[in-house]
């Protein structure tokens, strides 16, 4: 339907390509946040594409700047907000999984040395090892997760 309409209207295909490119830039910005660079390129691309979309000698008239500017500004603000929120989420520490364990504190249940020992982490008993001897009752920081074993180091209080 849209292609049929574009065939009836005399449109500048460069304008259509620029608008499509702008939408692609917005999508890429949402997927891979580049601090708003792609969103800015998308805004400029959609603005230029909208301005040259319909020729001024068209019997249907051209697009008014009073329509183009608010639509482009709304789109730009929306995608800048999405980019900001996406970047904020990427910077947050993971809340689940193995990545979330690294850096957390556990309590030593049985003495730990290079051969191993046991720690209590969030109510679960884990096998652990360390380069140095750590006595039971100490607090340790999880440095690395290797399968079902945790590499830990003692936390100095």
UniProtKB/TrEMBL annotation:
SUPFAM superfamilies: NfeD domain-like. Pfam families: NfeD (PF01957), NfeD_membrane (PF24961). InterPro entries: Membrane_assoc_protease, NA-bd_OB-fold, NfeD-like_C, NfeD_membrane. The keyword Transmembrane helix applies. Residues 2-83 form the NfeD integral membrane domain. It comes from the Bacteria. The keyword DNA repair does not apply. It is found in: Membrane. Keywords: Membrane, Transmembrane, Transmembrane helix. Its main location: membrane. Residues 99-153 form the NfeD-like C-terminal domain. This is Nodulation competitiveness protein NfeD.
